[in-house]
Predict the structure.
Amino acid sequence: MSNEAMTKAVTQFYDSHPINEDQILHALRQSGSDLANLTQDDLSPLDQDHYGGIEANTVLASKAGITQSDHVLDVCSGMGGPARWLAHRIGCRVTGLELTESRCQAASRLTKLARLSGLVEFRCGNALAMPFPDGAFDVAVSQEAFVHVPEKPRLIGECARVLKPGGRIAFTDIVQRGRLDDRDLARLRDEMAYPSVETIGGYRKLLRDSGCDEVQVEDLSDEWTHILVDRLAMYRSLRVTTVAKFGEARGESWDRAYSFFVSLYTTGQLGGARMVARRA
């Protein structure tokens, strides 16, 4: 699949994702939240579309050594939950880079509602050709997004390029642990928009090849297996709103795709990792 075709696939995947701006706003209204006086604390239970929620943000920020003086790049920032959380909790500036225009725009609107636009901004763009100069950021972070990006060497190279010397990169991602046959890989590509799945060893090498050192790796596979079983149940609880927004066919296809994805964790074929490194 070409990069252009993969870009289209990822965009379609997130344009019809069960967790979306409408779903978040509906949940806020249902809970009685005042949208005119919204805070990130109101949003955080709903806008953290990654594994482990705000607790995972806390760990990643600590591992990356993020401080108030840092300018942080959130690569593949989605609807901006982690970016807003970092700004809200730490007080740092955050720029989010997101491929899918609908999610980039939603991130900006939610950030405005939370009155964090002074610290957080979003750019719509491709992580393989970042619209930033060399050495623009102190830290680059990402959570469970690199799996959607083809050309992993180019991706890691771009992350390193936009970091200042001594800057840190910290990310979590879905990784291959056991054997995935051609049918598994095809389903992950077609149903989850994963063009390829890297290994822990592969990421370690890519970081070093891109001029990063002090590479630290944590295997999160067991933890994520439990989280993903719960996430499947959560997505099923959203079926009514998913079908209402995207139709019955999408509700069925999402359940089928995510059930297959979770099964690859329970069989040990997929796992998760947290990677932290420093640009030399």
User: Anything to note?
Assistant: Strands lie at 71-75, 93-98, 120-124, 137-143, 163-176, 212-219, 270-279.
